[in-house]
Amino acid sequence: MMLRLVLPLLLAVVLAGLVVGAVLLARAAAAGRRPAPDDPREILKRRYAAGEIDEDEYLRRMSGLSQDW
Question: Which residue has the higher pLDDT, 63 or 69?
Fold first, then answer.
């Protein structure tokens, strides 16, 4: 008798945990894909898109950011 009450409750708790875990993982993955607005590459992309720098300057600076120092 007791097992018939506990088993559905346990199943509901496990399912709720899986749903919450999936939502948290999805949020973490989405946050990881967005670059920080103050990332030098993002600033450089915005400046190029706004016409503040030309293509040569953009490529030169992007190349410099890609090097390991």
Answer: 63
pTM for the model: 0.48
CA 40 to chain centre: 17
Same domain, residue pair 1 and 30: yes
| Residue 45 domain boundaries | 36-69
**What gap in Å lies between CA 64 and CA 52, rounded to an integer?**
18
The three-state secondary structure class of 69 is: coil
Neighbour-count burial for 1-22, b at 16+ CB within 10 Å, e otherwise = eeeeeeeeeeeeeeeeeeeeee
